[in-house]
Amino acid sequence: MTNDKENNKRPIIEKAIVSEKMTAIEKFQNKTLRPIIKMKHALLIAYFEHYLTLQKFDFNHLNELKKIEFIERIFSKDSQFRNEIKGIIIGHFTLEEFTVYKNFIKESNKRILTVVKERIMSTLV
Hints:
This protein has one domain (about 35-125). The protein is mainly α. It is elongated, with a radius of gyration of 15 Å. It has helices at about 5, 25-40, 40-55, 65-75, 80-90, 95-105, 105-125. Helix 3 packs across helix 7 and helix 5 (about 80-90) packs across helix 7.
């Protein structure tokens, strides 16, 4: 079994620069959301693959365009899937981060789903 402290150590994303010129939501995305999403990458991919199994959907036999369309459709139509993805990420916030999140819930959720969708597409398409 892996050590939770090691398993939950957030990666540093060199491209995720935080500057004074950025808006608060941009800072939150680069400082909190992107590192958590990167840290949970394997879990997010496994969750998506489990979703496909539950839906009894053969994703691997689709061409690239159909895979993209399918992923887009899931992220736009399946609210339970979206909520579970958000929960995976939000569950890793500190109390301080959650306080910031509460000020930008709609925008933060949109950013979470966009980044996760892009990761799934870049990994599985």
